[in-house]
Amino acid sequence: MNSCGLRCLFILLSFPYLLQADLSSDYYSKTCPDFDQTLVQVVTDKQIAAPTTAAGTLRLFFHDCMVDGCDASILVASTSGKTSERDADINHSLPGDAFDLITRIKTALELKCPNVVSCSDILVGATRSLVKMVGGPRINVKYGRKDSLDSDMNRVEGKLARPNMTMDHIISIFGSAGLTVQEMVALVGSHTIGFSHCKEFASRIFNSNAEHSADFCPEGMNSKYAAELRKLCSNYTKDAEMSAFNDVFTPGKFDNMYYKNLQHGYGLLESDQAIAFDNRTRPFVDLYAANETAFFDAFAKAMEKFSEQRVKTELNGDVRRRCDQYNDYRG
After folding, report:
1. Which run of H or E residues covers position 54?
2. Binding site annotation covers 85?
3. Is there a single domain that holds both residue 50 and residue 151?
4. 92 annotated to bind ligand
5. What are the tens digits of pLDDT across the range 174-211?
6. Best label site of 182, 184, 207, 264, fewest CB within 10 Å?
């Protein structure tokens, strides 16, 4: 290790508080007093114009924060020399409206207070506002994050849950992110809004034996629901954009209907339906299905905790001028 590295290590070991982000709800009160008002206005305009923005941004938030914390690494575009997180296969279906929203907010804020507000704080703040806008709970978020200095596609695999994973595996992934089983079940409730592409659940609803595929019903799934999904996704191999709402009854409203659906066999993804049967997760599914207030409270607290873990500071991050590029990018 060179002398600079030794000095840095000595400083960090002597003053460990330097590694801790100084987050606060009024972090931008002096440096960018119009931060919250500007963010909310842009978010409102975008959600009105494109109602699926809320679900898309919430998904973007999770895909960012599950990989090394909420550091806006998901927003960085790949270059000829390096492939970033957003081009990992599991991130290919992240919606353009969510990326567009963050770009719009960043542009508006750069005009008011240049080089002040981080992209990671923008993503967290936008997610908070959108959840509330579509009927969800108030999330008390804090600000002061810095943006990552690296985004690597190879760091994604194994940190994001896939629909066909076992419950053991999914619980392990959330546990590695510092989340309990109850917090995991509460956060998965975000599937109360949004949609999933047919290819993500096709293997669940289509029987490999074509002779019996018409009346095939996956374990735990309502038979009529399965039949309707097969009709909807019948051409999914030719049209990759074909999709179904995660919550078939109130797809645009953030509520506890997702959990009620699971109890009656209306879980779209295999991983979703599994939490209604696993002994470790079912008690929380039943609780949130019966009590929306309990779900909202648990979701808000889990989001607050999740958004504050593994935060980047001045020592290992900065404030990007463009969310999709590092500040030293030369193109």
Report:
1. helix 53-65
2. yes
3. yes
4. no
5. 999 999 999 999 999 999 999 999 999 998 888 755 44
6. 264
